[in-house]
Amino acid sequence: MTGLLIQDLHHAFDKTPVIRGVSLHVDPGEMVCLLGPSGCGKTTLLRIAAGLEPVGQGTIEIGGKIVAGGPEHRQTPPEKLGVGLMFQDFALFPHLTVKENILFGITSVTDNHLDWLQAALKGLGLDGLQDSYPHILSGGQQQRVALLRAAAPEPQIMLLDEPFSGLDVSRRNIVRKRTLDFLKTTGIATLMVTHDPDEAMFMADRILVMENGLIKQDGKPVDIYFKPKDPFVSSLFGTLNKFSGIVENNFVKTAMGSFAAGDLKSGDVAQVLIRPEGITLSKQQNKGVKLRVLLARSLGHSSHLSLTFDAPEAGAPKEILVRMPGVFLPDTGSFVWAQVNDGHGFVFAA
Amino acid sequence: MLAVLVMVPIVAVVILALAPSDNIWSHLIRTVLWKYVSTTVLLMIGVGIGTTVIGTATAWLVTMCRFPGQKLFNWALLLPLAVPAYVLAFVITDQLEYAGALQTTLRALFGWSSPKDYWFPEIRSLGGAITVMTLVLYPYVYLLARAAFLEQSVCALEVSRTLGHGPWSSFYKVALPLARPAIVVGVTLALMETLNDFGTVDFFAVNTFTAGIYDVWLNMDSRSGAAQLSTVLLIFVLILIGLERAHRHGQQFHHTTTRFQDLPSYRLQGGLAALAFMACLIPVVLGFVLPASVLVHYALIYYQETLAANYLTIVGNSVGLASLSAVISVSIGLFMAYGLRISQNPVIKLATRFASIGYAIPGAILAVGVMIPLGVFDRVLTSLFKDVLGLGFAPVLGTTLFALVFAYSVRFLALSFGTLEASLGKITRNMDGAARTLGLSAGQTLKRVHFPLVRGSLLTAGLLVFVDVMKELPLTLVLRPFNFDTLATFVYQYASDELLEESALGALTIVAAGIIPVILLSKRIVQNRAVRKTTEIPEPSPAPAPVP
Predict the structure, then answer these.
(1) Which residue out of B438, B527, B533 would a mutagenesis test of the A interface target, given it has the greatest number of A Cβ atoms within 10 Å?
(2) How much is the pLDDT for A32?
(3) Which fold would CATH assign to domain A239-244+273-349?
(4) Cβ–Cβ of A150/B437 closer than 8 Å?
(5) Is the pTM value of this prediction over 0.80?
(6) Does the model's ipTM exceed the 0.90 cut?
(7) Among A13, B151, B316, B495, which one has the highest count of C-beta atoms within 10 angstroms of its own C-beta?
């Protein structure tokens, strides 16, 4: 049984297509992140799943039942869906207390609910705040109240729209951890929208990368990072060093060495993308490719270097970016030797 | 649909003006038109400059400087808003004319015996009208400029200081340009009121358009002539509306950062503090304390005369009319604001915007616009009742309470609509979404989320309309039924006949009612900043915008 199943969904605003054929599923107890840049359609997808936007074309099933679209063009109003939705701005009701906000979605409040509320408030560090109004809460507290409000009616699926973007960077990690723990205890199927790859890597059991209304890749966080399917997915985690070369005998030869060419045929032009952290530098001579240091800066936990080939090489960028763990600060103008780590070097058709 | 009904008067004026039965355009141009145009333009320039200077300067003083009385002036500077221009005009004339208190004192002091012995400025003049209107209208500029100064991030000012500009130079180079859109909006509001004014210009015999429309209509008995003048006036109004809209739009770009700190507060001492104190005191005294105290003085002496002149009936008329109009206007306003919120239809959006410009349309034009269609309607009704149904009577709508309430509702719809729209705007789309996903239907969402949140605004909107109807003069003068008086018309008639003393209690009642919105406004002023600080939501949620 699946929690949420979406098949071949299309959607347009004023004839501008926003979602162009999306299929996905989220299992109970699973946390799936929709990752993509702003405007890729991920928030719209979430609003459609919550029943807040009509389904143009396609099918949405919750718990094995078609709730929207399908052959009958069904459209279940949001209040009948049993979906928990948490917004980026939390959207707490300003005229209600914390307790009233959380219990808003429960039609007849029983002692069980009140017990649950007390335990949940305590578990999330909100005890003593139940009679406060939202405006006196900190951002993190508002976030937790919004989470509890969405979870209180025990929905089958939970949808989170950038739930941490309103919080201080320093607080985000702890709030993420707490949210994840809370959701895991409920065993709910969760779909979360984010544009932050670190957040998706941390939170998700599975990541769906979205671009331009399409899902580009569906995989485990490790696979999204180490086995990106195309240049867009690989670029989500930051700028890459781009080399190009021609495929010969199943290998692409570049200034940084040879890489397995996969499906590409001999004679094809290929691009090889290497993350800054996918290159290891050494001051030891003749271990790899010789590069001249343009700039070296320490970020504390890592060092950021900019380098160049001593003489221009065909198909190589003018500047090569490398991130080395710890402190590695060679003098500007000195030479270092570079090797590409195993598993790095993503080969795509140019 | 409602929006269409509200647009009828404006459309009617334009149609009648373009298709005149008796064309007096050429006559108007030859005779009075240029006089009206030049007087109106001069009046607008004078009031524009006056309100800009007083409003901006006082707003800057109370927000950025610390001097004795500054906290008090924060709200006291709003008080003149409670005094209708015509009331101040009557009081000032009463005090400053030849037989008034000031000149009598001067004569006694210097031993002058006749007007030939000394020079004194003529009060009932264009200059007098400019002064009076500036004194009661500057709070519009003050209010908006003050809000703009407060909303400016101090960062911008601090950056300017670190870049080597002193406090004054920072004011001219940073604070003033940033606040400019708000100031322009304030001035356009003040000028709309200026165009609407009839009592002052009539009493001072200043020939503005508004005065002209009444003259052409009531004295020359030419409806189409009045309509033609109205269209010219409408052009002025449209320019003002355009200005206002353009600058309101500009206001959105103000927030460059959400950091709010305490404002720098330059501590003024000695002579500077005294200057600042006087600069704030004079407008309040002339615009509020003087008229209020003179009226209280007269009212205490002459209240019996006022009571004898059917005062209580008249108050009843005013309150009844104002309450009825408030209820109607708020209902329509709520309906429209809600429609605008849930509708994506651009036609409805446009119609709603158009319907809500009633406030900018001077009462004189609205009066013409209401009379024309109702007159046509009456003729149809009459023939229907007499010829078709064969009855001996027919209902008449023109110059009835119906016409009056309809006109008020059109004119003040913008007030109720604007208040409610702003309040509904604070309820984010996501709150709707949250309520719906938590199991509430659309109707339940309205009841459990929207209504509790807008309840306060409903009351505010109702009060604002109520008070403005109490003060309203030009519409009432034209549309009221024969021998039906409101407080405003009562005061106007008595005071025009130099019987200010006898009507003082009435004028005082209007001023007292006018204080209600001042209190509401000053409360909001105090809260605004505090609320902003606590409910900081760093990132506004992006609506699901279409992907280009």
Answers:
(1) B438
(2) 96
(3) OB fold (Dihydrolipoamide Acetyltransferase, E2P) (2.40.50)
(4) yes
(5) no
(6) no
(7) B495
